[in-house]
């Protein structure tokens, strides 16, 4: 089976692709929403410190780009939101029911963003300089606050709070013990009807009891099955739960007629209350790394895009251009080059590392696919680059640790014995190429920024050929960002929420036809093309001298 | 009434005002520019650009409050979103597509001003207007479905696999009057709000510019016509609701007009009367200005200008009251007709208790019912509203500074 066939083999392939296109368009735009206001803020601070008009001009140009992409982002975000509701309604229902708080708190982020973004623009020349700088600060904090909220939900989907992975870097896979497992709090009202010994024989571990219930570690195979039954509308009498009822409740009609969803709701509601209604997603073990990496991605893409915009201006500098304009363009170019170098260095060595180690620890199946520890791959990029031997040290801090072997992951670890899912539980191996392509391109971008800054430092400006190469930097930066995001999202399959809900459960019962999916996908691609054109026109034309 | 319902009403109220203004701006801006250019009236073109600037600045605000509404809905009523998500592919899909087209037409129209050739720019203006009219199409189809769940079908005996028969859903008797009423209402209220804004400007600055005068005088007959059309469409909508006993009686029962059993569950006729009073203010204000004009007054008097400011505000409040009346009159149900035994019996028996639960506005998500969340919402919304008012102040009245 080819790696593409494997990826398409999980349920709802067309709708996954459709969502991928819609959300990627939104994600590509968000890079600038996260990065440009921060850069504008720094430029405005430089203006406040030096009083030089060139920094004000740069800040205004960056803010203008930011406003444009924010408005597009609001439109594509709305479309993406509707897309999620109509393609993955069960996921949305689960998110709204149990991990709603960050989404709820993001409302205030949206409003904060839109108010301060417009104040940033319309307040120029109408507000005192320092007040305006505070507005600029609030504008980028609004965007980052929004990111902090949504990334927490996404982090929960990658590694939910309470997940216990199935891998030990020294002992290997732990599927034999029923792992991966997830911590749940089972209220006494539910516990009293369940045969705990039977559940223990299925892999459940009792962690501790209090007056009102018990903490358990539940195998994800059981959790997945119950989530599926809940959203399929099963009642206890048709559920696997019937086999773990205590004998005295086995024929109790009140229990047998109960919807599985009600029972699951009782357990999940109690669990979320115990962990923290407002904090549950922020406690995801991959949250910190994910947030830093997402912000770093936005800053990196923005930095390289601004760099390319000013290279273009230098290349097309009219011979009649004033010294003032030349100085502005040179300064903006230097600013963007240094900014890009600092951010990409941090992104690779600190933020990316933080996220990578968390994924290795808490989502080892995905990590195994990222590293491509499989004989199914004819070309292993990790081996080719010599990263294979170094990776245990990077991921686990010990050269003697072992990487998880993909081929040893049971294809049915997410299913209960005797239940056929019709798809493999192993993550798609395609992410090995996505991930290593990202690493290679990201490293090249970093080296490019290093060279440019080196020449700026030693000679005042880089060689023309080197500078012109930077024109392609935004495309590569966006590509790196896309590959990182794709690794994250595609690599989670077949799970939608790792350890809890697979894509088939999350999916709508009324999916669009292929022609409808193609039509909407084409529309989104046209949106991205139109946006690219608009950014080009609006960042380039107004910045030209005399315009 | 639940805090969740009030939060949703609050955000929806702001959203709907901005959206209605957006529909009016999307019509008025390209029209005024086209007319100004055709007649060589630079004043009209200037007014058009001013309105476009305001629209470009507030467009995203409306979108954000719309998103806030849907997130409230998701957080407080996740079961409803989960159920509706399976059904609303086409209506939501239509709206989502036109939202994006509309956004791009705003950007292209704004940034293409004096950069694109006139013919192309005017063509984009047409797209701007048409997309504004088509965004509500999907949403109003959904609202009609919430009146009468026409087209709801089930694939299995348990009812867990539901789908929407689109043709039947579009034949919902409440859809067309609701959609047309929404468009005409938006245009009418928007025209009056624009007239009122310029009237306020005249009062504030103490002088009238020729273009403003023509704008005010030309919009008023259309606004009056819109109010007359609203009366007819409102009556049509009321008649279409006569099959939805619960809602109809909650709106009109208190006025002595009821259907079926005649039972009034929650009397919202007072809200209907408030709405009518607001309409009366608009009619009287316009009539007064007409009267003044007919009796030969050379300029709009201060009283006329003040009445126009009042009429503009009343127009926007009418929109809000109309939406609240439409929504609250079916409280506490998401689907007004769900109380009808015939509708209830068409739903497979195993699904009935689940549906009764997820369509009940009093049953909020237990995890989203804490006092902390209530305090946070009120505090954050309050602070952000102050910031929004500050923004509008800077936008409308901010003076240019040195440096």
Fold and architecture overview:
- The complex is a heterodimer of chains A (547) and B (403).
- Chain A is mainly α and 547 residues long.
- Chain A contains 21 helices and 8 strands.
- Chain A is 65% helix and 6% strand.
- In chain A, the strands form 3 sheets. A 4-stranded antiparallel β-sheet of chain A has the order 1-4-6-5. A two-stranded antiparallel sheet of chain A has the order 2-3. In chain A, strands 7-8 form a two-stranded antiparallel ribbon.
- The longest helix of chain A is centred in the middle third of the chain and has 40 residues.
- The mean pLDDT of chain A is 91.
- Chain B is mainly α and 403 residues long.
- Chain B has a domain of 155 residues.
- Chain B is built from 14 helices and 2 strands, in the order H-H-H-H-H-E-E-H-H-H-H-H-H-H-H-H.
- Chain B has a two-stranded antiparallel ribbon.
- In chain B, helix 1 packs across helix 11.
- Chain B is globular, with a radius of gyration of 23 Å.
- The chains are: A mainly alpha (547), B mainly alpha (403).
- At the A-B interface, helix 3, helix 4, helix 5, helix 11 and helix 21 of A face helix 2, helix 3, helix 4, strand 2 and helix 14 of B.
Please state the oligomeric state of the protein chains shown: heterodimer
Order of helices and strands of chain B: HHHHHEEHHHHHHHHH
Taken from the alpha-carbon principal axes, the silhouette of chain B is globular
Strand order of the largest sheet of chain B: 1-2
The count of helical stretches of chain B stands at: 14
Detail the poorly predicted runs of chain A. Answer: none
Largest sheet of chain A: 4 strands, antiparallel
Q: What Rg of chain B is obtained from the alpha carbons, in whole angstroms? A: 23 Å
Q: H/E series of chain A, N to C?
A: HHHHHHEEEEHHEEHHHHHHHHHHHEEHH
Q: For the record, give the distance between the C-alpha atoms at the N and C termini of chain A, rounded to a whole number.
A: 57 Å
Mean pLDDT of chain B: 90
Low-confidence residue ranges of chain B: none
Number of domains of chain A: 2
Give the spatial strand order of the biggest sheet of chain A: 1-4-6-5
Number of strands of chain A: 8
The counted number of beta strands of chain B is 2
The biggest sheet of chain B, with number of strands, parallel, antiparallel or mixed sense and barrel status, is: 2 strands, antiparallel
* SSE class of chain A: mainly alpha
Largest interface: A-B, 72 and 75 residues
Distance between the termini of chain B: 51 Å
Sheet/helix structural class of chain B: mainly alpha
């Amino acid at each position: 089976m080819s790696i593409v066939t494997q990826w398409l083999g999980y349920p709802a392939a067309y709708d996954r692709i459709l969502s991928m296109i819609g959300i990627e368009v939104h994600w590509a735009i968000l890079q600038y929403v996260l990065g440009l206001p921060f850069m504008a803020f720094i430029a405005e601070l430089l203006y406040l410190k030096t009083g030089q008009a060139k920094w004000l001009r740069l800040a205004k140009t960056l803010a203008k780009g930011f406003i444009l992409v924010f408005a597009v982002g609001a439109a594509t975000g709305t479309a993406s939101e509707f897309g999620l509701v109509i393609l993955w309604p069960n996921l949305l229902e689960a998110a709204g029911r149990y991990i709603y708080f960050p989404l709820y708190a993001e409302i205030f982020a949206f409003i904060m963003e839109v108010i301060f973004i417009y104040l940033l623009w319309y307040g120029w020349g109408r507000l005192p300089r320092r007040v305006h700088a505070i507005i600029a600060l609030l504008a980028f904090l609004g965007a980052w606050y929004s990111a902090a909220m949504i990334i927490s939900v996404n982090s929960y989907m990658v590694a939910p709070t309470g997940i216990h992975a199935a891998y030990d870097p020294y002992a290997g896979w732990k599927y034999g013990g029923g792992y991966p497992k997830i911590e749940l709090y089972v209220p006494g009202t539910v516990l009293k009807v369940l045969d705990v010994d039977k559940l223990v024989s299925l892999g459940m571990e009792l962690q501790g009891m209090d007056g009102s219930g018990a903490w358990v570690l539940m195998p994800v195979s059981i959790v997945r099955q119950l989530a599926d039954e809940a959203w399929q509308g099963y009642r206890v009498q048709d559920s696997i739960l019937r086999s773990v009822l205590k004998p005295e409740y086995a024929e109790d009609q009140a229990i047998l007629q109960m919807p599985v969803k009600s029972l699951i709701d009782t357990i999940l509601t109690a669990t979320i209350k115990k962990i923290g209604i407002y904090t549950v997603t922020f406690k995801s073990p991959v949250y910190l790394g994910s947030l830093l990496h997402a912000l770093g991605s936005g800053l990196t893409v923005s930095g390289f895009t601004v760099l390319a915009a000013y290279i273009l201006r230098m290349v097309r500098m009219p011979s009649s251009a004033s010294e003032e304009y030349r100085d502005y363009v040179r300064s903006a170019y230097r600013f963007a080059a240094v900014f890009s170098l600092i951010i990409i260095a941090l992104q690779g060595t600190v933020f990316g590392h933080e996220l990578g180690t968390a994924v290795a620890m808490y989502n080892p199946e995905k990590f195994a696919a990222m590293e491509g520890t499989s004989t199914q791959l004819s070309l292993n990029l990790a081996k080719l680059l010599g990263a294979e031997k170094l990776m245990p040290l990077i991921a686990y801090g010990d050269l003697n640790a072992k990487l998880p072997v993909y081929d040893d992951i049971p294809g049915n670890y997410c299913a209960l014995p005797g239940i056929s899912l019709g798809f493999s539980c192993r993550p798609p191996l395609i992410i090995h190429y996505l991930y290593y392509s990202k690493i290679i391109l990201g490293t090249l971008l970093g080296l490019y920024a290093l060279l440019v800054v080196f020449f700026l430092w030693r000679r005042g400006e880089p060689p023309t050929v080197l500078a012109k190469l930077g024109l392609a930097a935004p495309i590569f930066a966006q590509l790196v960002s896309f590959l990182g995001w794709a690794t994250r999202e595609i690599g989670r399959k077949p799970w939608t929420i790792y350890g809890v809900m697979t894509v088939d459960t999350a999916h709508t019962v009324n999916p669009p036809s292929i022609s409808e999916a193609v039509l909407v996908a084409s529309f989104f691609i046209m949106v991205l093309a139109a946006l690219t054109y608009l950014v080009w026109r609006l960042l380039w034309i107004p910045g030209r001298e005399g315009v | 009434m639940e805090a969740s319902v009030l939060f949703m009403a609050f955000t929806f109220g702001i959203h709907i005002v901005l959206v209605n203004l957006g529909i009016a701006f999307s019509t008025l801006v390209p029209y005024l520019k086209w007319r100004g250019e055709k007649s060589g009236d630079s004043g009209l073109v200037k007014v058009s650009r001013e309105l476009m600037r305001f629209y470009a600045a507030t467009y995203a605000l409306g979108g954000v409050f719309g998103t806030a509404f849907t997130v409230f809905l998701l957080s407080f009523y996740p079961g409803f979103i989960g159920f509706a998500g399976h059904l609303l592919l086409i209506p939501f899909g239509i709206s989502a597509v036109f939202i994006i087209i509309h956004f791009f037409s705003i950007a292209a129209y704004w940034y293409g001003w004096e950069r694109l050739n006139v013919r192309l720019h005017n063509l984009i203006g047409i797209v701007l207007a048409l997309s504004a009219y088509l965004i509500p199409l999907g949403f109003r189809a959904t609202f009609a479905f919430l009146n009468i769940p026409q087209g709801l079908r089930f694939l299995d005996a348990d009812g867990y696999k539901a789908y929407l028969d689109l043709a039947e859903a579009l034949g919902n008797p409440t859809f067309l009057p609701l959609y047309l009423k929404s468009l005409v209402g938006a245009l009418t209220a928007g025209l009056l709000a624009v007239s009122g804004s310029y009237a306020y400007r005249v009062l504030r600055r103490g002088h009238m510019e020729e273009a403003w005068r023509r704008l005010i005088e030309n919009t008023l007959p259309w606004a009056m016509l819109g109010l007359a059309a609203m009366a007819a469409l409102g009556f049509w909508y009321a008649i279409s609701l006569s099959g939805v006993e619960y809602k109809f009686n909650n709106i009109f029962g208190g006025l002595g007009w009821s259907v079926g059993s005649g039972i009034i569950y929650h009397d919202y006729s007072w809200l209907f009367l408030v709405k009518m009073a607001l309409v009366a203010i608009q009619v009287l204000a316009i009539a007064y200005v007409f009267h003044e004009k007919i009796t030969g007054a050379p300029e709009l008097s201060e009283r006329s200008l003040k009445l126009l400011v009042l009429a503009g505000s009343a127009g926007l409040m009418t929109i809000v009251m109309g939406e609240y009346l439409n929504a609250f009159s079916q409280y506490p149900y998401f689907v007004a007709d769900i109380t009808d035994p015939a509708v209830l019996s068409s739903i497979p028996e195993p699904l009935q208790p689940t549906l009764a639960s997820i369509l009940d506005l009093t049953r909020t998500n237990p995890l989203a019912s804490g006092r902390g969340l209530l305090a946070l919402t009120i505090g954050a919304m309050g602070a952000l509203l102050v910031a929004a008012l500050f923004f509008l102040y800077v936008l409308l009245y901010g003076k240019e500074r040195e440096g």
